[in-house]
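Intended use. Records like the one below are meant for learning the mapping from a protein sequence to its folded structure. Do not use them to infer anything beyond what is encoded.
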Amino acid sequence: MRFAVIGAGVIGRTHAQTIQALGPRAELAAVVDVVPERAQKLAGELGVDALTSVDEALARSDVDAVTIGTPSGLHADAAVAAIDAGKHVIVEKPIEIRLDAARRIQEAEQRSDRTVMVVSQHRHDPASLIVHEALEAGKFGTLTSGNAVMSWWRSQGYYDSGDWRGTWALDGGGALMNQGIHTIDLFTWFLGEPVEVYAVAGLLAHERIEVEDTAVATVRFANGALGVVHGTTAAYPGLSTHVRVHGDRGSAVIDQNKLTYYHAADEQSDAYAYGAGGRANQAEAVLAEHGYGAEKSDDDEPTVAGLTATSHSTQFADFLDAVEQGRPPMVTVEQGIRTLALIRGIYESARTQSPVKIKELTS
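Structure written out for the chain above:
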């Protein structure tokens, strides 16, 4: 499958390197960017064509699929045009910054026979797969609560480095929409459909941006579970992310993308009226049971089919499989919209200082 990468910034570079790592199943044909120098620089490094027009890329018969790594608020226009041109599409997170724009992508997908995937690569982490499988199998019993925490730091210089950063029009939000969305995506994948949210947000440590650098929210899910979201880019020097899920028969903790705690009760565990304490951690055993040894550190280079890979490689491989097998990818447009809807609900609740029902959101 031959790809054109739309957007030659940091994300576009990751997409391009991922495609090349998956060769010969995937091949990079062109890099597209409205800034000619950016397109030429990346295309020259990778030995492919440099284009400045999305339409030019979509008109090429040797382009089967595109990846979209433009500023978040421009995703829908490129995605819809690509789908309507008969291309398969990978959209970087978030799917878009507004629900109405995201639903334009969904409508285009529904009127086509093309495969469309939203990037959320941490769903493919061993920890995430194990926890999701356990939840699907009911191993934690009745799901009761969970939380998603992202305590990061971004300097003022980070926000000043691009005109689009920290704007509602193109970034679509701050700590949650740009950085915390991966953690929030796992949160919704594990706990299910969010139905109501109450939130507060603030700009506490930065200047000259329109969006939040800190937000906290409580969430009620359709299954009755309750959750807490905490995201910030004002936690110097930058700490970890974690997702926790709890039920009346078990719990799991993913910290910095690693499974650090897992317990699913057996029939004898009811003897522990006050819990089983530290001896209850089954994380190492369950990782081994699923064929994973000690999880690698973030400094280790992953591989796919023996080739040095990027953080996106496993998900891009799933996309190729989905196209070949005629099945949905692991992260669908519908699921991307669910995650976006929760973030939009948090922003609306913080703005109105009142609870917000997710289904009532229109934009």
